[in-house]
Design goal:
The protein has 122 residues and is α+β, with helices and mostly antiparallel strands. It has helices at 32-43, 50-60; strands at 2-7, 64-73, 76-84, 90-96, 102-107.
Length: 122
């Protein structure tokens, strides 16, 4: 079962600082339960703070952060981020929220981002 839990269009999640911590979540009533689940996962150490991922992406990738979503997919938390690449292409990157390992990359001209694994199709 796949549920989209949080999006930067609606909320800012778990402190932007690389040291991390729980940031203030502001969501409407329909998102309150999902926001609580994400906070519990962070407090339990099941996921890394988004700020840590953002710092990693800014260090490793040539691109500008556009959007983030946190999803729970079959009991696995996944950060999905969108980056605007140096040539104006939008790339979608999926990271394991537990260890911030890159799981998947989609988009055009991915190698221009310089953060996707070698052999990733362009």
């Amino acid at each position: 079962m796949r549920r989209v839990l949080l999006s930067t269009a609606l909320v800012l999640l778990v402190g932007i600082g690389a040291a991390g911590g729980v940031g203030v979540l502001q969501a409407d009533e329909s998102d309150a339960a999902e926001a609580r689940a994400a906070r519990r996962a962070l407090a339990a150490g099941e996921i890394q703070p988004f700020g840590r991922l953002l710092a990693q992406v800014e260090r490793e990738c040539r691109g500008r952060f556009v959007e983030m979503e946190l999803e729970e997919d079959d009991s696995r938390w996944i950060y999905e981020i969108k980056l605007l690449g140096p040539q104006g292409d939008v790339a979608e990157l999926e990271y394991d929220a537990a260890d911030l390992r890159l799981l998947e990359a989609e988009g055009r001209r991915l190698r221009a981002l310089e953060c996707v694994p070698p052999g990733t199709p362009d």
